[in-house]
Amino acid sequence: MDIFDRLRQATLADWTAYVEHPFVRELGAGTLPQAAFRTYLEQDYLFLIQFARANALAIYKSRTLADMREAKGTLGAILDDEMHLHVRLCARWGMTRDDLERAAEHPATVAYTRFVLDCGQSGDLLDLNAALAPCVIGYAEIARALAPSLHDDHPYREWIADYAGEAYQGVAARARGHLDRLAERYLTPARLGQVQEIFATACRLEADFWQMGLDSARRAH
Ligand SMILES: Cc1ncc(C[n+]2csc(CCO)c2C)c(N)n1
């Protein structure tokens, strides 16, 4: 069992509420209201900007070149791949880059991203990566679970296919391996409870992020 499995086991209720959130189920079934997906995409643009900062912080918090390269890899993936993909996906859903730039951060976006940044600022690289893990590894698991239900005219096909694709699955597997090596170096029995709490909180904030999308669609009707 690697550290990720141990953290998931210890926080299973929070983990499950995140990866099996009604937003995820409806996304997979193709029944998610479009307004919910649009709000999610808009806020995710703002989320990704802060997530890039969190990975820049991980470079700063690194004490070895190898750790710096890991964080640089994720930062590059966000700046060079994920962000472009995201803007293209938003364009297909009728949102321009200007629309995205003008959007205000929702409290759920602020809460999640600043929590992650604070874990990194007040803690070490293990704390920061424990806060990042539900995001990076969770999306890979969610998309893999949804991929079998894909069909040609599925409305959320691109989103699912991107995260279920080999490139992203590789990014997540790498992040998982890195988290395990960080735990070998930094995790002590005395720290385990705190690291679990960080992981669990990040899962709850991911679930709140999904809920924000659903709530916006409810308001729109
Ligand atoms: C709320 C939210 N949580 C997780 C992700 C997924 N994600 C963000 S950055 C990154 C790694 C770099 O490619 C991944 C997988 C997201 N987009 N939005």
TrEMBL record:
Enzyme Commission number(s): 3.5.99.2
Classification via CDD domains: TenA_C_ScTHI20-like
Gene Ontology BP, a term: thiamine diphosphate biosynthetic process
Enzyme type, top EC level: hydrolase
GO MF: thiaminase activity
Pfam families (UniProt xref): TENA_THI-4
Keyword Hydrolase appears in the UniProt entry: yes
Record GO cellular component, one term: cytosol
Domain Thiaminase-2/PQQC: 15-215
UniProt keywords, alphabetically: Hydrolase, Thiamine biosynthesis
Pathway it works in: Cofactor biosynthesis; thiamine diphosphate biosynthesis
Catalytic activity: 4-amino-5-aminomethyl-2-methylpyrimidine + H2O = 4-amino-5-hydroxymethyl-2-methylpyrimidine + NH4(+); thiamine + H2O = 5-(2-hydroxyethyl)-4-methylthiazole + 4-amino-5-hydroxymethyl-2-methylpyrimidine + H(+)
Family statement drawn from the similarity comment of this UniProt entry: Belongs to the TenA family.
Function according to Swiss-Prot or TrEMBL: Catalyzes an amino-pyrimidine hydrolysis reaction at the C5' of the pyrimidine moiety of thiamine compounds, a reaction that is part of a thiamine salvage pathway.
Name used for this protein in its record: Aminopyrimidine aminohydrolase
Organism from which the protein derives: Aureimonas flava
Gene transcribed to yield this protein: tenA
